[in-house]
Design brief:
With 255 residues, the protein is mostly beta strands. It has two helices and 18 strands.
Length: 255
Amino acid sequence: MKAYLCVLCCIWSLFIFSQTEQFTIHNIAMNNDKPHFGLSILPDHNILVTSYLLNKNGKIKTYLGNGIYTIYKGIKSENGNIENIEPLLIDSKEDISHITSACISSDAKTLYVTTNYTNRKNRPKEDFKETNFHIETAEYISGIGWTNFKVLSFCKPRYSYAHPSISKDGKTLYFSSEGHEGMGGYDIFETTFEEDKWTDPENLGYPVNSPDDDVFFVLSADGKNAYLSSVKEGGYGMQDIYTIIPFEKKRNKKF
């Protein structure tokens, strides 16, 4: 009987979760035995993606036995592949190395990254978890690369902040954090740039956020729709990709 039920469940899952004919999914040529994630599309249609930092011999650079992540930049080809992939140019004088996600403003002048304080000169004096992340910004200088990294003012060392996403006008920054007032796990927050500073983060509330982790929030180019990775009731299991149509901040901010 158990075997019969298992077969029925398998058949049912294939029927419910099978792909439709409306689209196809391809494994692009850039993939290999190393992880690739955190994809971000730039205004010029170039691509940012996270993967391991490699040495001159193509080996993974490590710290305390763990691989170090960094950001790569590539060009989206006509057939959908990502080509001419190379590490994002960062000022050699900067001591930042471990970057897990990034985005660039629409005017290409400001870089936002998720990083940590490992082996950094800006390491806080107060106690904090070594595994905590925070968000930093940088400016681009021709011939030097991204430089003058600074921690965003609202990032507190005792909390973790990740997955920055900047609006097209550069005035609203979205990110994930398990700190501040939240619903549980990582929630999506927003902060706006007013009077030359970022405001205190606000939780986007339900239904954007849930008791589980809500991460990798990003707005569409026109700002009308939003996308995020979340564990929500009715999902397929673990993290699923969700879209919010339309994305109306005032409605969604109830918390």
